[in-house]
Amino acid sequence: MRRADSVVSFADEIAMIAMYQRALRTLLSLLLCVAGSFALTAAQAAPVAATAPPAPLSLAKVQALISSASRGRATAQSIFAGPGGLTGAVVSYKDAPNAPPSVIWVNDDASALLVGKLIGPKGEDLDKQAAQKVGLLLAPDKALAAAALPATNAIMVGSKGPVLTVFIDPNCIFCHMLYQQLEPLVAKGALRARYVLVAVVKRSSFAKAAAILSAKNPAAALQQDQAAFDPKTEEGGIKPDSAPSKAVTDRIGANNALMSKAGGDGTPMLLFCSKDGSVQQLEGMPRDVNTLLAELASRPRTRLRRLKRSTVQTLPRDMLRQRGACRLSAGKSAPARSG
């Protein structure tokens, strides 16, 4: 009996030790959790030392980096604050004195350059927005105001509805596809289209644009070009004008320059008044024309006072009676004539 009692007692002691160990581990875990909670609370309550933002870069510092990186071929004309702590620089190039300045980016300590497209969170072209902000490119509202002037000899088709301004090349296949999609909408009065003729796609584009603008009825000439368009060769169907007048030549050249000044990289380039009151600019074939149509505003919200005085002074008197920049797109463009 005594041996059995000893065995039982020893087993009980082992079980009690295991129980105490489990309890000790549980208590230790609780203590660690409580200690961690107090530490976290204290850390949250403790004042965080503010990190001073980096000092704005000077033009001299930016120029030193650009000059070094370009081996003296580029010059920073001016700088401005950019997104995400970047500094924008307006740069010209000694190798291309006639080329317009461009925008490049410098990091916060002027140790590296960013050259190329800077894209925003919604896919917006931040390079182009910056160029518009500093005056290298026309903002969309000013580009629309310029496109609406009689000097462009734009071709207005349609009698009612909001206006879509399209920079169109006679040999541009995407312009042709857009023209085909807009034609039935124009016919039923859903919109009006203002076509600004440019020549940027092929060598024959200039002579074909001249033929359209020199025609007695430019709208009919444009329709002829599009009706006979050859998708295989990507050629408009109108017969080129081999000897256009200087006036027509100058008009096409000025339209090309306007599209370039607006930042247009190709055709079609679209300008229109949006329902939110802003002027929007799109490049290329819209994914869905009906969706685009739903975005067009029939009444303006942007007022003429937002435009520079120099811009307003160049507008025809009948346009100045309109309420806003978006309303400019509702005015009638002057008919295109030769000479």
Task: Determine the CATH topology of the largest domain.
Answer: Glutaredoxin
Whole-number count of domains = 2
Total beta strand runs: 9
The CATH H-level superfamily of the largest domain is Glutaredoxin
First-to-last CA distance: 131 Å
Q: Uncertain spans, ≥5 residues at pLDDT below 50?
A: 1-8, 300-325, 327-339
Order of helices and strands: HHEEEEHHEEHEHHHEEHHHH
Structural class: alpha+beta
Q: What is the overall number of helices? A: 12
How much helix is in the residues?
A: 40-55%
CATH C-level of the largest domain = Alpha Beta
CATH architecture of the largest domain: 3-Layer(aba) Sandwich
The strand line-up of the biggest sheet is 5-7-6-8-9
Largest beta-sheet characterization: 5 strands, mixed
Mean pLDDT: 80
Radius of gyration: 34 Å
Q: Please state roughly what percent of the residues sit in beta strands, choosing from under 5%, 5-15%, 15-25%, 25-35%, 35-45% or over 45%.
A: 5-15%
Overall shape: elongated
InterPro entries: DiS-bond_isomerase_DsbC/G_N_sf, Thiol:disulfide_interchange, Thioredoxin-like_fold, Thioredoxin-like_sf
Protein name: Thiol:disulfide interchange protein DsbG
Pfam family, one: Thioredoxin_2
Give a quick precis of the structure.
With 339 residues, this protein is α+β, with helices and mostly antiparallel strands. It is built from 12 helices and 9 strands.
Overall description:
The protein is α+β, with helices and mostly antiparallel strands. The protein folds into two domains: 59-133, Disulphide bond isomerase, DsbC/G, N-terminal (Nuclear Transport Factor 2, Chain: A), CATH 3.10.450; 140-328, 3-Layer(aba) Sandwich (Glutaredoxin), CATH 3.40.30. 42% of the residues lie in helices and 14% in strands. Helix 6 (203-214) crosses helix 7 (218-227). The chain is elongated and about 65 Å long.
